[in-house]
Amino acid sequence: MQLPSLKHVVSEDEWNLRVNLAACYR
Question: Which pTM was predicted?
């Protein structure tokens, strides 16, 4: 799940939160 374009928009903290949530929903 690598989306550089989105990563540039959101902050690292928010990105980490989304990654953790995505991992939970898998």
Answer: 0.41
SS (H, E, C) the chain: CCCHHHHHHCCHHHHHHHHHHHHHHC
What the block records as the tokens of 25 is 């929903």
What tokens does 14 get?
């928010």
What are the Cα distances from residue 16, in Å, to 4, 6, 9, 21, 23? 13, 12, 13, 9, 11
Rounded distance between C-alpha atoms, residue 20 and residue 24, angstroms? 6
For 1-26, how does the pLDDT look when each residue is reduced to its tens digit (9 = 90+)? 666 666 566 788 888 998 998 888 77
